[in-house]
Amino acid sequence: MKIVFQHDHPLPVRAYGGIERILYWLMLELDKQGHEVTLIGHKESKFPGTRIKLIEKPETNWFESIPKDTDIIHLFYNFVVPGKIPTLTAIQGNGKPGELFPINTVFCSSKHAQNHGASAFVHNALDFNEYKFIERPMNWDHFLFLAKASWKVKNVKDAISVCKKSHKHLHIAGGNYWWPSKYIHGHGIIGGEPKIKIMNQCDALIWPVRWHEPFGIAIIEAMALGLPVIASPFGSHSEIITEETGIIVNNKNELIEIVQTCPRQFNRNLIRKYVENKFSISKLCHKYIQYYEKILSGENLNHAQPQWSLKTEAQELLSF
Fold it and tell me: Does any domain span residue 20?
């Protein structure tokens, strides 16, 4: 199959960038499986040891560079490509009121799809070679917040207040913290090895988001290093987090109780095996190939054009 992707920034991403890494890993896996992969993108993108073809993105009308013999186009943003070549659109975020997505849009969890009146989804995944698992004890003293701290829906505010009140350390990988505190450690926006090093110092991920979380790549990143996840009940969390891999809490008071005292012993090796089995890049690739084949056979992935279907806007803070 001849598959074309389009992305503006250099791949592989040099620092933080969950979606970019998934796109890159997917392209590598498709190439590994014998498909002909082309990226219309940044001239500094590199794919050593592969057959992936790079077409430098022109300043305007990138779609005019699509090879004529392309079977399918795979985009990670909402855009209707002119012409007759079929397109699969993968969406990671929540839509805005009134925003319509193409009928062949794939969301990143069942709940994410449902919230847009759709059914097609593919869970996100990781290349576990980039997440070295280290055997170590779990002391329940150091917690991780892995998200852009300035984004209110991610709710770093409650993560900070809970750890302060509980006299536990919180490591914020996704922002700084300027107020003096022996318990709160802001590491800025980081990625790659520095991020993995900080994650390996922590005992669990605190994920108290206050919106309908589409997926939460940080959840499976934490699990890849054997960290259980303490999360709010919103969005996709119940699809991803099991009793063996974390705890879903309904409010801040429950979060405080869990952070102060771990209610059960977690098996870090089991957490790693769970995420490897369920969220591998090979599984993600297999599911996308099934959707490519369905589209090329003339079928639609959804019964109608998806759009945000809830009464409240996606960015509106949910009660926690």
Answer: yes
Closest CA to 297 of 86, 122, 118: 86
Q: Which residues contact 218 (CB under 8 A, 6 or more apart)?
A: 18, 146, 147, 205, 207
**8 Å CB contact between 308 and 212:** no
Helices (H), the chain: 18-32, 110-114, 156-166, 192-199, 217-224, 237-240, 252-260, 268-278, 281-296
Check whether residue 256 and residue 179 sit in a common domain. Answer: yes
What are 141's two structure tokens? 């003293």
pLDDT digits (tens, 9 = 90+) for 43-99: 999 999 999 999 999 999 999 999 999 999 999 999 999 999 999 999 999 999 999
Same domain, 102 and 175: no
C-alpha span between 256 and 246 (Å, rounded): 15
Q: Which of 73-82, 183-192, 298-307 has the lowest mean pLDDT?
A: 183-192
Q: Domain check: are 167 and 48 in the same one? A: no
Same domain, 145 and 163: yes
Q: Which of 180, 189, 181 has its CA nearest to residue 150?
A: 189
Q: How far apart are CA 286 and CA 79, in angstroms?
A: 24
Name the more confident of 192 and 95: 95
What is the reported pLDDT for 17?
A: 76
4: its two tokens: 């074309």
Give the pLDDT score at 176.
78
Does residue 237 lie within any of the structural domains?
yes
Domain limits at 256? Answer: 128-277
Predicted TM-score (pTM) above 0.90? yes
User: Which band of pLDDT confidence, cut at 50, 70 and 90, is reported for residue 123?
Assistant: very high
Q: Provide the total of helices (H) and of strands (E) in the chain, helices listed first.
A: 9, 12
Tokens of 242: 């099991």
CA separation for the pair 132, 124 (Å, rounded) = 19
pLDDT of res. 190: 84
Q: How many domains does the chain have?
A: 2
